[in-house]
Specification:
Blueprint lengths: L10 E3 L4 E3 L16 E6 L2 E6 H20 L5 H26 L8 H46 L13
Antiparallel strand pairs: 1-2, 3-4
Length: 168
Amino acid sequence: MKALRLWASDFKQSHDSLQVNAFIPEGISFEISTPFVKQSIKRGVLTMTTDTQWAKLRTDVLENIKTLLDSWNGSAEEAVTLISENERNMDQLKKIEEQLREDEAFQYTSVEKQLLTVIIPKHQQMIAAIRSEKINLMNKMKQINQKNKVRDNYVSMQRASVFVDRGI
């Protein structure tokens, strides 16, 4: 079995992160025993991110979501647009959560909890506005359909000849 050995010069470390610059050829196995570090391989390149960095990314994504939701003008049309624009942020958040889920002990920070207490009600308001608009449109469609039925019944009456036998 082939093994990869990284030298100290391959690592760059700061107070909250550890960065490795290395190309991992296919078929090479490796093991890293650095605490609090997540790792992933993409196209043969090893990238590592600490929980602190993942938390920062998660906070940034939550702030982006909040900023986008704060720009809502109250209309249902704008709500649909913002929710669809937030799909990308939600996908990023899911990917970050998958990385952090490996370590069950890692919880939301107080800043993230505060952001979520703003985001969730705002999102619920947007969904309520969309539902309300949907109900209004359905009622208008029912009224139009009812008017069409009345018109069709009035116009489509066939006036056929009626023979009355009076016993003559």
